[in-house]
Amino acid sequence: MFRAKKLVLALVSLATALPAAAAEGEVVSAKAVELVDFGGGWAITNSMATGWAVSALIISLILIATGRPKLIPSKGQAVFESLIEGLRGLLEPIVGKHAFPAVFPLLITFFVFILIQNWMGLMPGVGTIGYGHDVDGHFHMLRPLIRPFTADFNGTIALALISFGAWLIIIFKYAGPKLILFDLFGNKADKKETPAVLYIVLSIVFILVGCIEVFSICIRPFTLSVRLFGNIFGGENLLHGTSFFFVFYFMELLVGLIQATVFTLLSSVYIGLICNHGDEHEQVDENNHAEAHH
Amino acid sequence: MILAEITGNLASAFGLLGAAIGVGLIGTKAAEAVGRNPGASGKILVQAIIGMALAEGLGVLALFLAK
Q: With an 8 Å Cβ cutoff, are B60 and A273 in contact?
């Protein structure tokens, strides 16, 4: 009872704090502000500038931390080595041993890049330093100078398109067109064990399922980018809307980590779906041969 | 008596509600499955992520395409 009362109290206090911001609707604009305009639609936006600055920071941080890689790792090198080892343990079973060496640098770059970009959006000053004007005694931010890279839809679209392009290249290199077509439209039923009529019906079903599969592949870049953008942009709005209520910072730290993981995992799952069962087929064949020998 | 006014796009709201329920169900079942068989957590993770991506993809479509 006491707990319920406390919860209600907390909710009420939160609800009274929220409407002031919620009444204005969207607190942070979804559109990035152009810092330098070259004309003709070409411009440097605040999200791009933040993205470049954070990229430079990541590169220099990793270079300084690892330096020249040594056999006995320094402290900085040990941190990054344990990160890479952890990700390898998570991703290798998903992608499969065959394509893993080609995919791993891409995936680890996605993870580190998105994670640091997400967390940099929580730094003090992001979205609060810039030009604006006073509305009824409250300062209203119009042109923030810094804005997180992943809170801009253009940035996440770029990431998703890189993921999709890399996916195309990798599946064509490591699976080949024949395996891809079989994987999408081919009949996976065993021809010896299914009756002929059922086999033909199943072929049609598998082709129809393949069409749905192709559609879901086509919207993948879209869903990947919207998922990341929606979470980070929503978090920005939440923080600004609640006047930077500190509890939400912990939630946003968690969301930033989860979204970076989800983006990396989804990229690897998409590759693994096509490239991974090459090994299994070989294993099954080997098993069959072994049984045949017995 | 009007308690609260509902504004915005109801169609996309319901689409997203469905997607959220779907993702939640997949999450609970995946956690249950890992509890029953911790050794298979890697395989369960992949299946759960694929399922969540499909469910969430429909939610995203509802968010952007619902009129």
A: no
Question: How many Å apart are CA A46 and CA A33, to the nearest integer?
Answer: 6
Residue A52 sits at φ, ψ, to 5 deg, of -65, -45
Residues whose CB is less than 8 angstroms from the CB of residue A108 and which lie 6 or more positions away in sequence, other chains included: A84, A87, A264
First and final C-alpha spacing in chain A:
69
Looking at residue A7, its amino acid is L
- pTM of the entire structure? 0.79
Helices (H) and strands (E) in chain A, counts: 11, 4
Q: What is the pLDDT of residues A233-253, one digit of tens each?
A: 888 888 888 888 888 899 899
Alpha-carbon span B30 to A232, nearest angstrom = 25
pLDDT digits over B20-63, tens only? 999 999 999 999 999 999 998 888 988 888 888 888 888 888 88
Angstrom distance (rounded) from CA A62 to CA A161: 25
CA A149/CA A80 separation, integer angstroms: 23
Could you tell me if A174 and A166 are in contact, meaning their C-beta atoms sit under 8 angstroms apart? Answer: no
Q: How many domains does chain A have?
A: 1
DSSP state of A294: -
Distance, CA of A126 to CA of A145 (rounded, Å): 8
Pairing of strands A42-45, A34-39: antiparallel
For residue A173, give both structure tokens.
Answer: 């290199």
Please give the ipTM for the structure prediction: 0.72
Decide if A142 is inside a domain: yes
User: How far away is chain B from the Cα of A247, in angstroms, using its nearest Cα?
Assistant: 23
Q: Is residue A262 part of a domain?
A: yes
Joined tokens for residue A206: 């598998």
Q: Are B54 and A223 in contact (CB under 8 A)?
A: no
Beta bridge partner(s), residue A36? A44
Among A223, A262, A266, beta carbon nearest to B60: A223
**What does the block give as tokens for A100?**
């893993």
For residue B12, the distance in angstroms to the closest alpha carbon of chain A comes to 14
Pairwise CB contact (< 8 Å): A265 & B49? yes
Instruction: Say how many CA atoms lie within 13 Å of B38 toward its Cβ.
Output: 1
